[in-house]
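Duplicate of #3305? Posting structure anyway:
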């Protein structure tokens, strides 16, 4: 049975009415869309490129497959997936992010991607349509995460696979304290310096801290109907690849 959307949800360190989150997150990503690479560099020390490469290797895209890359507006994951010959649909709730992605694709001469504005919680795609569903650094910004996971399960074919790349909580002693200090004190200042926007960067860091830990999120994926759920931590869990299968 589907659970109702909670009355309040997290927005960084705030608890806000659920109906406000989508618009507020939209404002953040509209603000940072043009500085997406700078944002990711600031939050990861430039390591996000390596993490995304590893993520796509885990997905193992194949020629002819239908893959949905959710919250993938700027194309970072889709460009990597498309190298396999897979048919990739890029979906994002934010048109500004999609615009950046389409411009980047045109500059790189990448054709054949399908770009669509979509809400992860209420996808318009038919049941059992995709072979794989990917979402990288996007699930924590969804208002109703369980609803988005159920939708991911719905649109996958039997045997389809779900892969999520997301920041989490590192278990390495001491490293978490170092990263907390860096992220809370330095990243917003970098956001102000590089993009003229410290508030959006501050929200993004806070949203990481409020996201469920690896074990909890793995359980949520299982609750959505996926089996053989796994989690692959990187840097002790600072970032993790979560996966599951639909049978």
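Output from current build:
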């Amino acid at each position: 049975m589907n659970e109702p959307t909670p009355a309040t949800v997290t927005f960084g360190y705030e608890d806000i009415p659920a109906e406000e989150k989508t618009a507020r997150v939209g404002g953040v990503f509209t603000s940072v869309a043009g500085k997406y690479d700078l944002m990711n560099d600031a939050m990861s020390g430039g390591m996000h490129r390596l993490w995304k490469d590893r993520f796509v290797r885990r997905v193992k895209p194949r020629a002819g497959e239908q893959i949905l890359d959710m919250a993938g507006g700027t194309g970072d994951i889709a460009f990597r997936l498309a190298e396999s010959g897979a048919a990739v649909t890029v979906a994002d709730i934010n048109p500004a992010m999609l615009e950046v992605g389409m411009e980047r694709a045109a500059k790189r001469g990448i054709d054949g991607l399908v770009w669509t504005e979509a809400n992860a919680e209420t996808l318009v795609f038919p049941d059992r349509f995709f072979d794989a569903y990917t979402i990288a650094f996007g699930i924590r910004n969804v208002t109703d995460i369980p609803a988005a996971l159920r939708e991911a399960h719905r649109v996958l074919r039997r045997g389809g696979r779900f892969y999520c790349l997301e920041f989490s909580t590192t278990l390495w002693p001491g490293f978490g304290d170092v990263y907390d200090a860096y992220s809370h004190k330095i990243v917003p200042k970098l956001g102000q310096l590089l993009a003229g926007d410290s508030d959006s960067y501050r929200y993004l860091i806070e949203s990481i801290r409020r996201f469920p830990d690896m074990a909890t999120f793995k359980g949520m994926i299982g609750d959505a109907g996926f089996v053989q759920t796994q989690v692959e931590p990187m840097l002790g869990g600072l970032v993790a690849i979560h996966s599951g299968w639909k049978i």
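Confirmed duplicate; merging threads. The chain has a mean pLDDT of 86. The longest helix spans residues 175-195.
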